[in-house]
Amino acid sequence: MNKLVSLSHMTQEQVRGLIELAQRMKAGEISPSLKDKNLILLFFNPSLRTRTSFELAMQQLDGNVVTLNTGGDTWTLEVDENVVMDGSAVEHIKDAARVLGRYGDAIGVRAFAKGEDWERDRQDPIIGSFVTYSGVPIINMESSLYHPNQALADIMTIMENCGTDVRGLPVTLTWANHPNPLPMAVPNSFLLTTALFGMDVRFVRPEGYDLDPMVMERAEKLCSDAGGRLTVTDNVEEGYGGSRIVYAKSWGSLDYYGNRNEEKKHRKKLTHWIVDDEKMAFTDGALFLHCLPVRRNVVVADSVIDSPKSFVYDEAENRLHAQKAVLYSILGE
Ligand code: CP
């Protein structure tokens, strides 16, 4: 592997290989070494799980890791090309990327969508700049479009509980209530990766909450190529009916993109989009998954997330094992 920007641009066999490697590392069957390798983690946004699990993953592989938070630990970075830098940004991203590429053998980057202009955000300019200018492998730790390391841990958790033959597995990805419009990287990656594996994917959301058309079309094609199925519905009974996995996430509407206050007013009509026992009762004893952090009793009822069917902590733990597999696949001999 020479980078990890999105899982859906890999083959099912390549993703399966990463998960198998992660499982072997989790079981303690192999302990490969990344001694003398250097990983740099650059965060434009906060994190609890991603930062902790990547730092520990690299340390457990005997490698070196340096974490930087932009704006606090680094200079503020200019992203646009060909600008006169007489504003607040002190350093151009291409210079920062080239310099960090001289120190690190790989660079992890977290850069969420800014939430103002989707046409700009969907170009993923920060990750793209690092891929273009750093000269070393880039690992996407969540960008505007994708959160591949989360999706890897999600599929690993599904396979641990439902077996590795997941083609046709009924899986529900449901929009959930939240006070704020959130990024779409997690649902994009979950939808595309479950489609890549040919699952029976039910995408449940209120009208106006479809993902980017490129993602919806790609998910449809991946599903069809892998012998799966994609159902898009706002009907909870149809979306949850007979499902084995319920994956909850909130995200912002493209109809209101850049207009948070208008969307917040609209969302007040959607507070019933919570994952609760009533909805879970439509499923076939489904497991509950969420990437975390989660707002309890807004996105999901305590009775669901605290139930024996909730695997959110296994899912979070699997970030560590999955990322060790990613790091070794990129940096190992
Ligand atoms: N799921 C996830 O990426 O968590 P953090 O935002 O805490 O890193």
Describe this structure in words.
There is one protein chain. By secondary structure, the protein is an alpha/beta fold. The protein has two domains: 156 residues, Rossmann fold, CATH 3.40.50; 164 residues, Aspartate/ornithine carbamoyltransferase (Rossmann fold, 3-Layer(aba) Sandwich), CATH 3.40.50. The mean pLDDT is 97. It starts with 11 loop residues before the first helix and ends with a helix. 40% of the residues lie in helices and 14% in strands. The longest helix is centred in the C-terminal third of the chain and has 20 residues. It has a five-stranded parallel sheet with strand order 9-8-7-10-11. The protein has a four-stranded parallel sheet with strand order 2-1-5-6, sandwiched between helices. It is built from 13 helices and eleven strands. The chain binds phosphoric acid mono(formamide)ester (CP). The site of phosphoric acid mono(formamide)ester has 9 residues, from helix 2. The site of phosphoric acid mono(formamide)ester (CP) has 9 residues, from helix 2.
Low-confidence stretches: none
Strand tally? 11
Structural domains: how many = 2
Strand order across the largest sheet: 9-8-7-10-11
- Main beta sheet: 5 strands, parallel
- List SSEs in N-to-C order: HEHEEEHEHHEHEHEHEHEHHEHH
Listed once per kind, the bound small molecules are:
phosphoric acid mono(formamide)ester
Gyration radius, rounded: 20 Å
